Amino acid sequence: MVKRSKRYRAAAERVERNRAYEPTEAIDLLKNLPGASFDETVEVVVRLGIDPRKTDQLVRGAVSLPNGLGRETRIVVFAEGEKAEAALAAGADEVGSADLAKKIADGWMDFDVVITSPDMMKHVGKLGKVLGPQGKMPSPKSGTVTPDLGSAVKEFKAGKVEFRTDSGGNVHAVFGKRSFETGALIENLKVFMDHLSGMRPGAVKGAFFRKVCVSTSMGPGAIIHWDN
Quick check: 203 and 55 in contact, CB under 8 A? Predict the structure, then answer.
């Protein structure tokens, strides 16, 4: 059993575990719970009505949130020549090709997003076992395999968030900081949920959103009511 801090237990006592809150009510509640000593991220977990064993029901993508994420997104880019220069000009934190692949293969993981031009997949493809478990493997579906590296870097720096289903059919995503105004968090959450709803696989029957839960990074979760 995980041993929780006194602060966490005090916060958990104020959340009704079997209640589905309205989104604004849940966000207001989270913002007023005993918090950590830093500005926590606010996260959503959505249990989808999919069969994660079937590849045609898996969901993966990315969406730009109108109010950003409130944090610095560290981006590495696989590119050479003019494409590398464009990525650096757009704000990429590190750019490389075979050298960058070796650095990551040797254990360096101090970044949040990997973006690559299609011709660099010969290097990135070898990193699947390293990047895959971290959810950082580039994909055309999430806009991280693209010839337009400059635009991709700018979008992720501005608050674009990647998401993908895990082995249990859940999607996890950050949608802001605890210090954000409630309205800004709700706006980000709505954009994310609307985008996710639009990605419903055709093979899914019944409710697509089985359970939606929001939390701060160090706090308890609150279930929210969200129409499919």
Answer: no
